[in-house]
Amino acid sequence: MEYVEYIFKMTVYVILDAVLLAMFVRVILSWFPIDPEGRLYSFLCLLTEPFVLPIRLIFDRFGFGEGMMLDIPFFCTYIILSIVSMALGRGL
Predict the structure, then answer these.
(1) Does this model's pTM top 0.90?
(2) What is the per-residue DSSP string for 17-31?
(3) What whole-number distance in Å separates Cα of residue 44 and Cα of residue 27?
(4) Contacts (Cβ under 8 Å, ≥6 apart) of 88
(5) Structural domain total, the chain
(6) Residue 92 has what DSSP assignment?
(7) Contact yes or no for 13/92 (Cβ under 8 A)
(8) How far from the centroid of its chain's Cα atoms is residue 4's Cα?
(9) Residue 78 contacts residue 23 (beta carbons within 8 Å)
(10) Which terminus of the chain has fewer Cβ atoms in its 10 Å neighbourhood, N or C?
C-alpha cells in the first residue's frame, strides 16, 4: 500500500511542477508582444487556467485586485501550488 501512495504522491508532484513551469513560461511570454491566439500561448492558457479560475472567481466575487496591473489571482495560485508542491516533495 505504501508503494501505491508513493506513486500517487509522485504523480501529483510531477503534475504540479509541470503546471508551475507552464505558469512561469506563460508569465514570461506575457512580457513580449506575442499573438494571444498562438499555439504555445493557447496551450499554456489551456493548461494553467483550470488551476487559476477558482482563485480568480473568488477574487472577482469580493472585488480584490480590481484595476491593478498585476494578475493577483494568477500570482496567488502560483504561490498556493508552490506550497503544495513543496509539502508533497518533503513527504516523498
Answers:
(1) no
(2) HHHHHHHHHHHHHHT
(3) 10
(4) 9, 12, 13, 16
(5) 1
(6) -
(7) yes
(8) 26
(9) yes
(10) N
Q: How far is CA 65 from the centre of its chain?
A: 18
| 10, 72 Cβ separation under 8 angstroms | no
What is the span of the domain harbouring residue 62? 2-90
38's torsion region: left (phi>0), alpha (psi -120 to 50) or beta?
A: beta
Q: Are 44 and 26 within 8 A, CB to CB?
A: yes
Residue 92: the pLDDT is: 65
Q: How far apart are CA 30 and CA 61, in angstroms?
A: 25
Residue count (the chain) = 92
Judge contact between 77 and 55, C-beta under 8 A.
yes
Q: pLDDT tens digits, residue range 29-83?
A: 988 998 888 899 999 999 999 999 999 999 999 888 777 888 899 999 999 999 9
